Amino acid sequence: MTELVTNNNSIRKILMIGADTLIVIFSIWAALILKYDDELSSLQEYPFRYTWLPLVLLAVPIFWYSGFYKQLWRFASIMQYLILAVGTLIHTLALAGLMLVFKYNFHYSVYIIYWMLSFILITGLRVIYRLVINNTTLSQFRPLTEILPFLPRHSDENLIRVMVIGAGYAGSQIIREMIELHTGHRPVVAIDDNPIKHTYQIHGIPVVGDRAMIPRIAVEYQIQEIIVAIPSASRQNIREIVEICSRTGCKLKILPLLHELIDGKVSIADVKEVEIEDLLGRQEILLNNEEIAGSLKNEVVLVTGGGGSIGSELCRQIARYQPKQLIIFDIYENNAYQLQYELKAKYQDNLDLVVLIGSVRDELRLKTVFDRYRPNVVFHAAAHKHVPLMEDSPGEAVKNNIIGTYNTALTAARYGVKRFVLISTDKAVNPTNVMGATKRIAEMTIQSLSRQYAKTKFTAVRFGNVLGSNGSVIPLFKQQIRNDRRITVTHPEITRYFMTIPEAARLVIQAGALAKGGEIFVLDMGEPVKIIDLANDLIRLSGLEPGIDVEIAFTGLRPGEKMYEELFMDKESMDHTRHDKIFVMKPVKDVEALKEEIEGLKEVIRWSNDEFNELLGQVIL
């Protein structure tokens, strides 16, 4: 199969070279006629018969090295056509120089005519090739078919009729690819808020109005699918557009935000279903990539819980910063294997990836890993996070979230790790549940170790709920909509802070770069979101109507559940960092306040005094 493709490519290049050769011969012949005479016979006075051979000998290598035969003309852009202009110009200048050497003094206008003809014909050849290979028909040139109705029209009865929102670069690319790649979609209309664009067309597709006209245009043009192609838009802007589109009943898709696209390039392959993350009510926070790169490049990085939702995204983002080695450490082998496959497929030999199975509770396993691989940076994401389940199994939460953190952090300190970052939670603030209490003690643990081991910069990162993570409310709501047509919410007024998985991972990585030792970093997460609003958004994104197609039932607060979450305690002082959306909290140093907090945590975890004092004596005091 590979040999067949190679042979076809070689034949295509040979045919193109042959065609270009005929074009340059014709172009010089035509240029001489246009300049010197109207009769073919007069050419015998000029050295045309001696010109064509050096012309060809110059054309082929110059065109080859200019890249004429390396381009995929099926997807050519302006840059590819500029290559043709420059290549033919270089060839014309080389021909003029050669003729001067052999004392054939053509008038300069011959070379100008020759260059223009050769460029136009060589470009025209490729345009025709592009139209043929893309199976473009005259019906796609709408103004032409409207004026000349007898021209053949392309049948599009089975194509999905698409409205594209956004008449900028991204929208143009999406429209062009739908036309050329035969995706089964037919773009019929575009929408843009810029009124100047409303009198223009993009690849023959009219731009007819702004977002307010979306419902009416959807009916008028019989739209079946809407694509939001504004990757530079704010989340608030996207949310408003999606709310309008949801009234149309059309299937809705979206391009990711600009920073999520590979090298900022837009393709139809990037179009995805609208997710609840796209409707987050504030702009997603972007951090200092250069600072992050400086803290990770050429370092051995270990991620505990690396197969989980947060841990796996940490690994994906760390891999971009060229670590010397990336070690995924997880007790659950299935997730770790899937992530290993994904990263190996993406980076191949450009990433030194190690996947290890083990538990953070196992001190001996941790020592073996640290002794062999000597990590410089550790991100500790391994933890039990499910609030109701930890209420029923507080001992397991203690073992994993407290003892596991202590084991990992202490081993890291003893092996000289430069940076240790703990992933914490807003539930650690004034905790009312076991999970939050164990995470608060984990924070206090690394702050204690920070005072004992100054060479290791210990820090914690505290944030709210992560949309789409394992155990989050979103997967549960999706399952309830799909299976039961009924969503359960604990209370109509319950609120939570939310962030996306990539955003959470970026915050954790940035905190590692900022850490000086003992801090807790907090993200300004904007306003909290009502869970009931989140449920309504998710129902609408599923093409259904809340209260009509999907019932919302209130079940009451669960054990240990707060009505609202906090990101910091009153007694914790908050300072700005050099990032306006990231704050840092200094550790509590007041002994009485610390004892009072510990007593409160003991009540939450519901252990006996002896058990709790033994735990604190081991990991904090």
What is the element layout, followed by pairings?
Elements: H1 2-36, H2 48-66, H3 78-101, H4 108-133, H5 142-147, E1 160-165, H6 169-181, E2 185-191, E3 201-202, E4 205-209, H7 214-220, E5 225-228, H8 235-245, E6 251-254, E7 272-273, H9 289-296, E8 300-304, H10 309-319, E9 325-330, H11 333-347, E10 353-357, H12 363-373, E11 377-380, H13 387-392, H14 394-414, E12 419-423, H15 434-452, E13 457-462, E14 465-467, H16 473-483, E15 486-489, E16 495-496, E17 498-500, H17 501-514, E18 519-523, E19 529-530, H18 531-541, E20 551-554, E21 574-576, E22 582-585, H19 591-605, H20 609-619
Estimate the helix proportion, in percent.
40-55%
Shape category: globular
Derived from helix and strand composition plus strand pairing, the structural class reads alpha/beta
How much of the sequence lies in strands comes to 5-15%
Query: What integer is the average pLDDT?
Result: 78
Tell me the span between the first and last alpha carbons. Answer: 68 Å
Strands of the largest sheet, in order across it? 10-9-8-11-12-13-18-22-21
Instruction: Give a count of the beta strands, DSSP E runs of length 2 or more.
Output: 22
The biggest sheet amounts to:
9 strands, mixed
Could you tell me the radius of gyration in angstroms?
A: 33 Å
Instruction: Report low-confidence residues grouped into runs of 5 or more.
Output: 39-45, 137-153
Question: With helices defined by DSSP (H or I, 4 residues minimum), what is the helix count?
Answer: 20
